[in-house]
Structures are given as structure tokens and as C-alpha cells.
Specification:
Length: 76
């Protein structure tokens, strides 16, 4: 689970396993596999970092998430 902030300032906890896509349009929009959309204050890179930290905490393969992103999104 990751915590993000809605545009109205309220905090919400999202199941990171249900995130299908994160867009910047220009607000950050998290699209879940259920097609529910959440507009949040955090930039796309921060949402990605939180998902990666969540996966690291599970002992998963966090770099596999970065590998799915277009190269320009995550150049290190």
C-alpha cells in the first residue's frame, strides 16, 4: 500500500498492486486496474518511487517496475 494526497489535500492509501498506469496530464492521475482514476498532488516520479519502495519492502523485484517504463521516464 502507498499513501498519496488527493488534490483537495486529503490522504488516501492505494493498493500498489492495483495500479495499472500513472499519467501526468498535467496533474498526476493514478489509474487502477478497476479503471478507477485518482488525481493526486504527488508527481509521477514520486508515485513510482513509492511503488518501488513498497515492492522492496515485500522483497519483490522493484527494478522490474522501472523496466516497464519508457526509457525517458526513468533515465538514471
Amino acid at each position: 500500500m502507498i499513501t498519496v494526497t488527493r488534490l483537495d489535500g486529503s490522504r488516501v492509501v492505494v493498493n500498489a498492486e492495483l495500479i495499472e498506469m500513472v499519467e501526468a496530464v498535467p496533474e498526476t492521475v493514478i489509474v487502477l486496474v478497476t479503471r478507477r482514476r485518482l488525481m493526486v498532488r504527488e508527481p509521477v516520479d514520486e508515485v513510482i518511487d513509492r511503488v518501488l519502495a513498497y515492492r522492496r519492502g515485500l522483497g519483490g523485484q522493484p527494478d522490474a517496475v522501472r523496466g516497464l517504463l519508457p526509457r525517458a521516464e526513468h533515465d538514471d
